[in-house]
Design a protein that fits this description.
The protein has about 800 residues and is an alpha+beta fold. Helix content is about 55%, strand content about 15%. The protein has four domains: about 200 residues, no CATH class; about 70 residues, no CATH class; about 160 residues, GAF domain (Beta-Lactamase), CATH 3.30.450; about 220 residues, 4-Layer Sandwich (Phosphatase 2c, domain 1). The strands form five sheets. A five-stranded mixed sheet has the order 7-6-10-9-8. The two termini are about 75 Å apart.
Amino acid sequence: MRELAITILSSLLFFLLLFFSFLGVQNSSKRLPFYYYPSGLIVNIGEENRSHWGNSIVTSELETFESIQDLTNLDSYRLKIRNSDGKVYEEEFQLKDVRKTDVLGVFFSDLFLAFFSLAIAVYFYYSTRDALIFGFFFNFGLIILSNVFVLAFKNSIFLFILTLYLGSFLQYHLIYRLRGKEINSKWLLPQILISFIMAMIASQERYDMVLIERIAIIAHAITVLFGLINIIANVFELLRSKPQDESLLKRLVLIISILLYVALPTSILFFDGYPWFYVHRSLFITTYLLFILSFFYGTYRYTFVPSFVIFTPSLVTLILVGIILGTYIGSIFILDYILPIRYLKDRWVFNFIFLFLVTAYLIPLKLKVKELFDYWFFEKNPKLSAGINKITALLSSPLSMRKTILTINNTVKDTVNVSNLIILIPGDQFANTDLRNINFMRISPQSEIWNYFKSTDRVTVTSHLEYGIGLRETLYNFLKGLHIQLAFPAYDSSSNKKNIQAMILIGEKLDKKYFSIGELKFINEVVKISGMLLENYSLLEDEIQKRKIVRDIQTASIVDNTLRLILPSEIKGIDYGYISKPAVGISGDYLDIIPISNTKMIVLLGDVAGHGLGTGFLVSAIKGIVREQLRNGTSLEGLFREINSFFRARYKGNEFMTLLGGIFDSTENVFKYVNAGHLSLIEMRTDGQIKLHSKTQRVLGILETDYHVQELKLLPGTKLFLYSDGITEAFSERDEIFGEETLIDFLHYNAHKSVKELPALLDVRMTQFRGNREQSDDITFIGLSFSPN
């Protein structure tokens, strides 16, 4: 519908420009009673001068007449005219007073043809973005229009010759386009230059009638030459591909359209004794009108399918407009001629009453028209009604996804007699579902084909793409290879925006006929239902995945998952030791040591808010997420983002976690780590000096955060310590806090001990510190040491 609106707007602009051109191009004046080209050739306009059609005014006589500045005092003029046999005769012609607006009536058919060509050009461009066919028809319209200005006002010679040559060269490009190929655009420049030079010569030598005639004849000869090549190429393609049924008809119509296009040049060049100038001008107009229509049909199929399918309400609106206009005209006729009513003779009274009635009953009338429209084209067809009822029933039936899709596929194929139905989805949709053997096809969500479908809200018609290049050619080959005729977008109704979640690809009709309006409506309804089913299955899959996670957590041994570490084999250059003691049997502290290679390992220590069974579930889930992400090659920063996303998506900020994790690399002598709100990392060098690395980032589970890695260069013998707040926030019987300073003093005192000995010694020290006071929080401590590899 957008294309139709743009076409109408362009047409209005065309008429406005044309009108003002006629008003400003020249004043009303006297002229000869017939129209002729600058060469003197008299054209077939005006029945009263039929005997002169195709003859030419003698050049010298024409130059004398054209040199007269003021014709106001002349009523007639005597001219010598040469007929097709070369004989010269002389005749007195009465001069006519011609207003500039009179030309609009004389050349109405020519102007209509120019407008129609322009409308076709605009429609092609906005519906298919086909610049070549747009340029061809736009140029054709300019040829017709400039021809009118040349005949009526003896100007626009430059534009007329320019468009004649450009039309010839554009037809040369069509030779390749109509066979699915394309000429490199660099060849356009010399063609435009040649056209421009010929137009400049004609414009500068406008009084050399013989030269202008020869220049025009050369343009017609090029048109005939390329037209013959075009016809031969299409006949060859016809014999080679041997199309059947409608495709054969299309090719034949296309060849006929090219014949019609070169009919006038052929007549001028090869039938000089009886050219087009000897027949009525209506035949000329009809021929080129048939050319436009036959070319339109021969190159594009189902041109208005998108409008019928997507914009059915617009069809109803058009019908309503017809009903209202018909009612108004009929009422006027009845009141004025059959039942003249005195007090309705004043038209404004009737207009007011009619407007009131239309306003009051427009909505009920629209609903009734839509109801009738659906009934006659859709519901009245028992096959279509039965098919849609069968598919609608699937919405509430407890069938599997596989069974539902197979049922839809078989029902559509049987109802509208198509070869197949394919549901095209992006590769990340239904990622964990087996979609084999149920007419699903995955496509990369980053592919140019999927991006094309996402960027359009229209039905894609395969045959519309047949003569395209670039992406259109790629898309055509993709759909044609699958024997697809129409591609319908299925939207995600849960979103406010029109997000396409799938494309429903409809195969070719087995009987090679057109889709009826009812069949198109049936397909449109099927697409809507399919969209709802896909959305339901998508939500169901998400729920299933969530339940799987919960099931895995519940079936796992919580204590085993939170307490027992699968210790890595020996990592070269790295020693470690740890202690992990829950406060109530299941730890809320998360400790993980995972080897990456024989010289690398990742260490993670975190603290989930609270402790007990709930935090145990979370620790178990985090463990699973970490290992899954590491298997997928996720970076350290990416790992923290995934855990943060898990908390935010599942708990909406109601649960959070601190986490310090890093990669220990003994070959690069470096520890790369991220601290998300956890306690300081403690570094102790061989001389006993201790440094606290307290720079942290946002706690996990609160807000979306882009985490960044910190890097710590290590010297041989350096020790690193990670710990939970169960150590620093432990209390003695006298309510004294253990604190960070006590921990540092402990490490100083035991600086000569290895990291494997320190955890057990710390456990003894804390037990002594607490005395008879019970452990109130989970305790986790890990020490790591680096030595040359």
